[in-house]
């Protein structure tokens, strides 16, 4: 056993990496000898993934020399530890400190190098040796982690601090050990006098700020690092429990309050733990903790989310998403001509880019910025005038309404559509593509509410107001108002979605004013990892006034779609659809029938 007992029970172990880098380990504890040695071995094994063990006698000898040379009884200050690093020709030292006060234990692991010390602290109530072992292993993981969830404190090394009176509160007098030392004679250090254990109130340097830093700055100039951190899970399923949190400071605490209520804080304490009973409401519950110390103050807000059968916390949206769709479609009536006329077959390739940004404000609120870019190209040259470019940008505010089990979305955006114009007959060109002319510029605002009355049923209500601007024809300017309601529900193991909507268009040209009544039904059937869909869309259009022929136009458009999609990977989906569309009208030459086959690939990033 490579051990050196100090101050109750302290284990010193020296390690060296295969490349020659040396590191030492010291364990200080007021626990019994056996658990202290066990925890030291656990930490040694944890560090053993990076270091190998050197003879313990070297550590013991050089540790004694450093204490004498620096007149440091415990060798915890920067000067003594730097001297020990020099004597050992070591790269760093690790110091594990375990203090038990009543039923509470505090574990603190420090990494000391020549230019910086780093510390991480954990607390435990009534923990046995198994739980202490797990927490010691976790401290090492947190210290080396790039993304630790425990606070890791760092401070520069100041090897030669000025003198300071021991009467200052920055260096409080420490009580003697309340335990009987268990120091085997074989491991006793000649001339060693056991130092005092940590008092019930932790030292001001317990969170990583070395004594030299406080001494050099002075009490009136010291910068407080007052920490408040929760030990309670942020997601729970039971409404009643306790909110556990700790407060740690580098100067004595004056007061701690929880949701405005002042809590009892022991006099002259630097750290305090609290357990506050609570009864939660479904969804987010906010707790505010305010702490004031001699040198400063801090306020932290914590959120505990109570999940119920009706209220679930959704996974946060990623900050950036990208969806790319590429498709090839074959249309047997690309110009939608009457069945009595000659049909033109067209093959079109399309590319759709949908990037999005999500900014989460809290669990209830987020802001989304979305854009859309659509472009297509026909293989047939005589259909090039049908090619378009659509550009759209919108922003949405999304707010959860737990009382109604709803989610409200308020959106604002705009888009432009440009048509292919190889002859450049129009002088209003698209800013991005010179071969295209500007066609329309719309701005719109939307309000939608999605309600989930049960885990399997969703109602969605949407309203939209759109200002329409036709670049070449002012008579086609105006507005459009849209309202729709949809219901999504499962039945017989399949997913069903029904939608009804109404669009009222009011343009400058009164003969173009119209009302559209829409209805759709979609059936989704999953079979062996393949998603099959069948959809019916019906649009009935009625114009408000007669056209130039003296007839009030009326149209009925029916669309039937069969589709299948298969996720080859989580980011790659392959799909195929067959669409049959027919339109009937009271105008001569306005009826048509067409069939479209589409092969589509979807990439999700």
Name some characteristics of this structure.
605 residues, mainly beta, Porin, 3 domains, 7-stranded mixed beta sheet, 29 strands
How many beta-strand segments?
Answer: 29
**Named CATH topology of the largest domain:** Porin
* CATH architecture descriptor text of the largest domain: Beta Barrel
| Proportion of residues in β-strands | over 45%
Number of domains: 3
Q: Please compute the radius of gyration using only Cα atoms.
A: 36 Å
Globally, the shape reads elongated
Give the structural class.
Answer: mainly beta
Tell me the name of the CATH class of the largest domain.
Mainly Beta
Largest sheet composition: 14 strands, antiparallel, barrel
| Helical percentage | 10-25%
Low-pLDDT stretches are 1-20, 161-223
Helix count from the secondary structure assignment:
5
Strand order of the largest sheet: 16-17-18-19-20-21-22-23-24-25-26-27-28-29
Mean pLDDT across the residues is 81
Q: Report the span from N to C terminus.
A: 54 Å
**What would you give as the CATH superfamily of the largest domain?**
monomeric porin ompg
Give an overview in words.
With 605 residues, the protein is mainly beta. The chain has three domains: 9-217, no CATH class; 227-306, Immunoglobulin-like (Sandwich), CATH 2.60.40; 320-604, monomeric porin ompg (Porin, Beta Barrel). Helices cover 11% and strands 50% of the residues. It has helices at 33-47, 56-70, 78-88, 129-144, 211-217, and strands spanning 9-16, 22-29, 52-53, 92-101, 104-112, 116-125, 152-156, 227-230, 235-236, 240-248, 253-258, 261-263, 271-279, 283-293, 297-306, 320-331, 346-360, 365-378, 388-401, 406-420, 436-451, 458-470, 478-491, 494-507, 514-527, 530-543, 554-569, 572-585, 592-604. The chain has a 14-stranded antiparallel β-barrel. Helix 1 runs parallel beside helix 4.
């Amino acid at each position: 056993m490579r051990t050196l007992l100090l101050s109750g029970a302290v284990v010193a172990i020296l390690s060296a990496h295969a490349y020659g880098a040396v590191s030492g380990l010291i364990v200080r504890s007021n626990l019994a000898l056996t658990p202290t040695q066990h925890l030291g071995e656990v930490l040694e094994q944890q560090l053993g993934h990076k270091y190998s063990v050197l003879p313990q006698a070297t550590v013991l000898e050089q540790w004694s020399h450093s204490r004498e040379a620096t007149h440091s009884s415990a060798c915890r200050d920067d000067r003594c530890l730097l001297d020990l690093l020099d004597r050992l020709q070591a790269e760093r030292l690790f110091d594990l400190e375990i203090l038990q006060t009543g039923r509470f234990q505090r574990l603190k692991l420090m990494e000391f190098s020549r230019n910086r010390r780093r510390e991480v602290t954990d607390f435990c109530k009534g923990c046995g040796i198994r739980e202490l072992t797990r927490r010691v292993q976790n401290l090492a993981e947190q210290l080396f982690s790039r993304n630790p969830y425990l606070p890791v404190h760092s401070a520069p090394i100041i090897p030669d601090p000025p003198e300071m009176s021991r009467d200052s509160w920055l260096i409080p007098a420490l009580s003697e050990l309340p335990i009987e030392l268990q120091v085997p004679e074989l491991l006793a250090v000649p001339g060693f006098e056991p130092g005092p254990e940590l008092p019930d109130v932790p030292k001001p340097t317990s969170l990583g700020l070395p004594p030299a830093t406080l001494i050099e700055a002075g009490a009136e100039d010291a910068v407080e690092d007052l920490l408040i951190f929760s030990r309670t899970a942020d997601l729970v399923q039971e409404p009643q429990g306790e909110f556990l949190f700790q407060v740690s400071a580098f100067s004595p605490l004056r007061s701690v309050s929880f949701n405005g209520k002042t809590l009892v804080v022991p006099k002259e304490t630097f750290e305090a733990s609290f357990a506050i009973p609570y009864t939660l409401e479904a969804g987010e519950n906010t707790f505010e903790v305010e702490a004031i110390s001699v040198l400063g103050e801090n306020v932290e807000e914590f959120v505990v989310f109570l999940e119920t059968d009706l209220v679930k916390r959704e996974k946060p949206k990623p900050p950036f998403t990208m969806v790319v769709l590429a498709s090839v479609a074959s249309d047997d009536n690309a110009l939608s001509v009457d069945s009595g006329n000659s049909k033109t077959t067209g093959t079109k390739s399309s590319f759709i880019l949908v990037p999005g940004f999500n900014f989460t404000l809290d669990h209830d609120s987020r802001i989304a910025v979305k854009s859309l870019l659509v472009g297509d190209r026909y293989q047939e040259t005589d259909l090039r005038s049908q090619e378009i470019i659509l550009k759209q940008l919108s922003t949405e505010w999304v707010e959860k309404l737990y009382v109604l089990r709803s989610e409200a979305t308020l959106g604002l955006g705009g888009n432009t559509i440009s048509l292919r114009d190889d002859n450049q007959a129009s002088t209003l060109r698209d800013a991005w593509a010179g071969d295209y002319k500007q066609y329309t510029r719309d701005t719109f605002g939307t309000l939608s509410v999605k309600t989930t009355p049960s885990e399997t049923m969703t109602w969605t209500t949407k309203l939209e107001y759109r200002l329409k601007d036709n670049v070449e024809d002012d008579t086609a300017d105006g507005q459009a108002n849209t309202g729709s309601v949809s219901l999504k529900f499962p039945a017989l193991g399949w997913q069903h979605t029904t939608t009804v909507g109404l669009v009222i268009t009011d343009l400058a040209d009164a003969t173009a004013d119209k009302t559209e009544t829409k209805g759709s039904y979609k059936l989704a059937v999953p079979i062996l990892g393949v998603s099959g869909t069948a959809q019916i869309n019906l649009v009935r259009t009625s114009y408000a006034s007669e056209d130039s022929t003296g007839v009030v136009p009326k149209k009925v458009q029916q669309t039937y779609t069969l589709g299948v999609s298969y996720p080859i990977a989580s980011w790659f989906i392959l799909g195929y659809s067959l669409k049959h569309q027919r339109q009937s009208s009271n105008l001569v030459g306005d009826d048509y029938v067409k069939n479209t086959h589409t092969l589509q690939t979807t990439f999700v990033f």
